[in-house]
Amino acid sequence: MINGAHVIIYSQDAEADRAFLRDALDYPHVDAGHGWLIFKLPPAEVAVHPAEGSGSHELFLMCDDLAETIADLESRGVEFPDPPEEARWGILTTIRLPGGGDLGLYQPHHEPAYDL
Question: What pTM, to 2 d.p., does this model score?
Answer without folding.
Answer: 0.83
